[in-house]
């Protein structure tokens, strides 16, 4: 190693480490070596490390506060130390606590009464779903780990033994955290002693000091605050794959500002520290939004986050909040790097659509403004709200399939199918609602939110888990999927059977039952009807009717236990799975093919799929209550190769957000390169794509998922 | 009023400032060998054939009264000479293997399309561009669109090759914020050879237009073996130097994207052996205009 390394060189080394880890994971992870989820920064385990939890059930698994707390403490206490000596931050995670849990639900707590309808409509009901809500880092930064422990002890005392299990488990977890940090302090000291390079030696000494401080008191410096967040995301991710980022530029600014004034930090160091944080975990961070009072939150750190991701060039999930008073330079820089780096980051969240939408549920503007982007497609109130975001889904196509089969041989008409669609959708939503109540009653008995609880406002005070009464607000997410597939199916039937008389119901039945076998003509006859997204088509009308009806049905009543639900349109992780169980459909889709994604029109919906046509379609199909119907878009890198292009794309993003768009994910992909990588992933091992809410190494995606990305691109560009 | 166009392109970013909707008029008075929109040349509707998309359903053979579609040794053939462009086959080809280039459209229909993107256009300080083909061959139709666009607060541009009577410019000049004026070359013999017409009227019109319109961009297609050399560019630069209302000069590198369209129209493509000019050459040529 050279005498001393610059920040730039250290960042390059971090990137290489990440790429090595990824290659190693691609070799050893999973059954086929691929995983279609967020790249969350997991580090390959050293040989010989394994963790076997203690069981409290005959099936060998463990459930509830006591064993979750005890086991997690032991995992933290035995987890290997991970220090990358060029990073300023200690720690890394190698083991997913939830992975060992098979099945993920305690079989003694039965929801058999819901099975029939859940299966009938192929519902993703959310029972057993964990995390997917947001913590308040301000709370954690103010308290520090010792402060959190003290808080637990104070409230445990007040509780008078009513929730002993809860408090004991939370204490276990914090003790485990402190143990793991302490072991890193010791290791950093040992490494510092042996280190020859002066800069790295200094770095290790500093790392030990910073972490020692965190063991004893709340963070004071910017470095300590960043290390605190890094630890917390590691602990949260390792416990149950949590997303716990949020408005990072707001949380960290006071620490940065203090040091900036004193002159103890410069821009380069601040950017480097943020790059080290991004290395730890691909968390969802929101930048550039507003504070509760509406003042602009954009500050130096908003820019530094974008800069850090730009220098690091690994998958990250930073999201810029786009609003009327935003700092335009932040948008310009984000678009510039988006096109230059082609990493699919940052994404863009529409402040207006999110804020005004959430207020329609009866919340103040102050709360709505700070409901920060923390997940793939979702926002949540930091530390206050339990949401089940992104884990409850209704496949409109599954509902359609039930209806279609019921009616096709029963004197069918499009009108009749539509009416029945509404009836069945309603039942499906009611089934979901009952399942959510069941989850809120029972989830803590399976896997309580022991890590996220610590940085939420209610649980420690009340002794109740976030999933079980500890949150101040409950707004349960329910996402619809396959909007385009169903809208296009309705319009194909309407056009070809009832308007053109080109096909009879009997003929439709026959070709669908045969999966269009030897009947490509009829398939294309159906497929060539103008699709959702082409503007003013029958399919556009149906898409709009479906969105409105879904929203109305979700909002017209709460769950039986009285919890409100919030509708959105999103399906990515289920786009393939949802299609697999369903036969051919009247839009010309063959059996088992994927459904359409979120609120996006079908791939190839018009000949030249222009960004504005897609954006108009998606903006017109927002459910409008503060949960997203994201727009997924592909651009050719040449689009914003110069200043004019950057300006046009920035303006495009602003307009989409101004029209009520909630979220915008943009991939910058070179068609030739992606096709080559699809055929032979090893040719482009470091190619990163934005899959939807998250970015990932393309080579790490399964073939089916790669195909989905390729289809979108080939049709889209 | 009805006009003939062959495409409406939204989110167009290379035909003037901002995000634009570009309307492509059908019919042109030039026949440039490198044209990447060969369907723009004839004013008439045309049948385009894309054999790789054909699924062999035989619908076209069934519906064509002229017997222009036939099957020979299992190969589907189309005889353009027999075709009267009734468009029946295209309507019955769901595989998009037979497509009609050209549609007759009203001003209102065009305005409806433009308005779909109004927010994007206006927020980006963009507008609409009439292109082609030669939009000024249908200058009355163009004028009506422009008038309505101006009433609706849209920035307007016309992309013209200039080979039309100057009166056609007078029809639209009041309602046009920007002219994109295409110049290919100054040498008239070469011009005739490669575009089929003299450049005399084109250059005269440019001089006249410069006297009465304040906002003109010159656009020059750069075609290797034809005008992608310093002398050709220098000649153009000299010609436009005295023209004070030329606000910008854009050099557009040749690309092959239109070749498959030639086949679809049964037109021979004469430039099949040339490739796109390199970035280095483009930057050398651009410097000539600085
Ligand atoms: S109608 Fe179209 S798909 Fe059918 S045979 Fe003719 S060209 Fe082929
Ligand atoms: S356009 Fe009419 S005449 Fe020409 S090939 Fe088609 S059906 Fe026959």
Q: What is the SS-derived class of chain B? A: alpha/beta
Largest sheet descriptor of chain B: 8 strands, mixed
Query: Largest interface by residue count?
Result: A-B, 26 and 22 residues
Radius of gyration of chain A, CA atoms, in whole angstroms: 25 Å
What's the total helix number of chain B? Answer: 11
How are the strands of the largest sheet of chain B arranged?
7-1-2-8-9-10-11-12
Total count of strands of chain A: 14
- Rg of chain B, nearest Å: 20 Å
The number of distinct helices of chain A, counting runs of at least 4 residues, comes to: 25
| Low-pLDDT residue intervals, each spanning 5 or more residues of chain B | none
- Described by the principal axes of the CA atoms, the overall outline of chain A is globular
Strand proportion of chain A, as a percent range, falls in 5-15%
Alpha carbon gap, first and last residue of chain B: 43 Å
Strand order of the largest sheet of chain A: 1-2-3-12-11
Largest sheet of chain A: 5 strands, mixed
Strand content of chain B: 15-25%
| Mean residue pLDDT of chain B | 94
Proportion of residues in helical segments of chain A: 40-55%
Portion in helices of chain B: 25-40%
Following the backbone from N to C, one meets helices and strands of chain B in this order, namely: EEEHEEHEEHHEHEHEHHEHEHH
């Amino acid at each position: 190693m050279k005498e001393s390394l610059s920040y730039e060189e250290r960042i390059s080394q971090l990137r290489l480490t990440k790429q090595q880890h990824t290659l190693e994971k691609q070799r050893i992870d999973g059954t086929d070596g691929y995983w279609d989820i967020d790249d969350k920064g997991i580090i390959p385990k050293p040989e010989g490390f394994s963790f076997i939890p203690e069981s409290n059930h005959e099936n060998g698994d463990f459930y509830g506060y006591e064993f979750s707390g005890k086991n997690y403490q032991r995992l933290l206490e035995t987890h290997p130390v991970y220090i990358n000596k060029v990073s300023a931050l200690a720690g890394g995670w190698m083991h997913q606590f939830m992975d060992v849990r098979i099945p993920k639900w305690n079989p003694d707590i039965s929801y058999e009464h819901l099975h029939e309808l859940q299966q009938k409509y192929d519902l993703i009901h959310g029972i057993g779903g964990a995390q997917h809500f947001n913590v308040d880092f301000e709370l954690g930064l103010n308290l520090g780990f010792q402060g959190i422990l003290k808080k637990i002890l104070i409230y445990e005392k007040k509780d008078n033994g009513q929730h002993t299990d809860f408090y004991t488990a939370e204490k276990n977890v914090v003790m485990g955290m402190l143990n793991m940090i302490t072991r890193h302090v010791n290791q950093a000291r040992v490494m510092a002693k042996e280190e020859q390079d002066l800069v790295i030696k200094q770095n290790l000494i500093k790392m030990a000091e910073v972490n020692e401080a965190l063991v004893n008191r709340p963070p004071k410096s910017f470095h300590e605050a960043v290390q605190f967040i890094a630890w917390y995301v590691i602990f949260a991710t390792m416990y149950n794959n949590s997303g716990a980022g949020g408005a990072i530029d707001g949380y960290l600014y006071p620490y940065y500002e203090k040091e900036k004034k004193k002159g103890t930090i410069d821009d380069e160091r601040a950017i480097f520290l943020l790059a080290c944080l991004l290395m730890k975990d691909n968390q969802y961070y929101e930048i550039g939004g507003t504070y509760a009072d509406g003042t602009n939150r954009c500050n130096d750190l908003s820019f530094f986050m974008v800069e850090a991701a730009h220098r690091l060039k690994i998958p990250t999930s930073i999201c810029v909040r786009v609003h009327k008073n935003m700092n335009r330079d932040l948008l310009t820089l984000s678009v510039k790097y988006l096109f230059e780096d082609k990493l699919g980051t940052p994404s863009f969240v529409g402040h207006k659509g999110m804020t005004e939408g959430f207020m329609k549920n009866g919340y103040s503007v102050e709360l709505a403004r700070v409901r920060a982007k923390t997940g793939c497609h979702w926002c949540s109130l930091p530390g206050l709200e339990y949401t089940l975001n992104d884990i409850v889904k209704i496949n409109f196509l599954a509902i359609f399939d039930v209806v279609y089969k019921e009616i096709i041989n029963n004197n069918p008409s499009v009108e009749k199918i539509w009416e029945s669609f509404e009836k069945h959708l309603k039942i499906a939503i009611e089934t979901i609602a009952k399942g959510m109540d069941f989850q809120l009653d029972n989830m803590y008995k399976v896997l309580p939110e022991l890590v996220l609880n610590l940085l939420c406002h209610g649980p420690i005070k009340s002794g109740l888990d976030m999933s079980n009464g500890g949150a101040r607000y409950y707004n349960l997410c329910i996402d619809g999927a396959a909007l385009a597939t169903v809208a296009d199916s309705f319009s194909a039937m309407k056009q070809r059977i009832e308007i053109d008389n080109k096909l009879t119901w009997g003929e439709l039945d026959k070709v669908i039952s045969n999966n269009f076998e030897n009947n490509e003509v009829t398939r294309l006859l159906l497929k060539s009807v103008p699709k959702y997204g082409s503007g003013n088509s029958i399919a556009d009308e149906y898409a709009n009717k479906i969105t409105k009806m879904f929203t109305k049905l979700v909002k017209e009543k709460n769950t039986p236990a009285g919890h409100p639900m919030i509708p959105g349109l999103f399906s990515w992780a289920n786009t393939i799975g949802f299609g697999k169980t369903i036969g051919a459909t009247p839009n010309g889709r063959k059996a088992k093919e994927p459904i359409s994604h979120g609120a996006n029109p079908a791939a190839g919906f018009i000949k030249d799929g222009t960004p504005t046509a897609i954006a108009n379609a998606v903006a017109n199909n927002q459910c409008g209550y503060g949960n997203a119907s994201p727009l997924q878009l592909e651009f050719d890198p040449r689009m914003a190769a110069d200043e004019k292009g950057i300006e046009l794309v920035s303006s495009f993003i602003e307009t989409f957000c101004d029209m009520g768009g909630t979220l915008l994910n943009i991939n910058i992909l070179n068609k030739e390169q992606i096709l080559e990588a699809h055929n032979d992933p090893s040719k482009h091992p470091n190619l990163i794509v934005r899959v939807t809410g998250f970015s990932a190494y393309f080579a790490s995606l399964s073939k089916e998922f790669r195909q989905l990305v390729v289809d979108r691109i080939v049709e889209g560009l | 009023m009805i006009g003939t166009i062959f495409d409406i392109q939204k989110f167009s970013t290379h035909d003037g400032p901002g995000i634009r909707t570009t309307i492509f008029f059908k019919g042109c008075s030039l026949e440039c060998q490198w044209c990447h929109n060969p369907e723009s040349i004839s004013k008439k509707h045309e049948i385009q054939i894309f054999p790789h998309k054909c699924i062999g359903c035989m619908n076209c053979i069934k519906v064509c009264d002229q017997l222009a579609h036939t099957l020979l040794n299992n190969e589907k053939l189309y005889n353009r000479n027999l075709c009267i462009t009734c468009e029946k086959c295209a309507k019955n080809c769901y595989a998009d293997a037979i497509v009609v280039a050209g549609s007759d459209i009203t001003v209102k229909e065009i305005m409806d399309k433009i308005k779909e993107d109004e927010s994007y256009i206006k927020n980006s300080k963009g507008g609409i561009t009439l292109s082609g083909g030669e939009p000024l061959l249908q200058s009355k139709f163009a004028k009506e669109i422009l008038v309505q666009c101006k009433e609706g607060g849209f920035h307007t541009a016309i992309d013209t090759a200039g080979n039309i009577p100057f009166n056609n410019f007078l029809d639209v000049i009041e309602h046009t914020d920007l002219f994109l004026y295409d110049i290919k070359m100054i040498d008239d013999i070469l011009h005739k050879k490669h575009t089929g017409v003299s450049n005399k009227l084109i250059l005269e019109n440019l001089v006249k237009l410069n006297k009465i319109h304040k906002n003109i961009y010159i656009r020059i297609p750069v075609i290797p073996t034809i005008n992608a050399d310093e002398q050709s560019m220098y000649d153009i630069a000299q010609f436009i130097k005295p023209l004070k209302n030329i606000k910008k000069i854009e050099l557009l590198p040749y690309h092959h994207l239109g070749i498959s369209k030639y086949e679809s129209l049964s037109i021979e493509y004469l430039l099949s052996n040339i490739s796109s000019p390199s970035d280095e050459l483009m930057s050398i040529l651009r410097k000539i205009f600085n």
